[in-house]
Amino acid sequence: MIDVELVKILVHAVSTDIFHFLVIPVVVFSAFFYFFGIVGILQKNGKKSRETRKFPKVTVQIPTFNEPIAIRCAEHCIRMDYPRNKFDVIIGDDSSDKKVSAMIDDFAQKHRIKVTRRGTNEGFKAGNINNMLRYSKGEIIVIFDSDFVPPPDFLKRIVKPFEDKRVACVQSKWSYLNMEQSPTSKFASTVLMVYHNILARLNNMAGVPLLFGSGEAVRKNVIEKLGGWQEGVVRLSMATRPSIFTISQCRAKCLTMCARCGHNSAGGLMATQKPSLSIKDP
Question: Could you give all domains of the chain from N- to C-terminal order, each with its CATH number?
Answer without folding.
Answer: 56-271 (3.90.550.10)
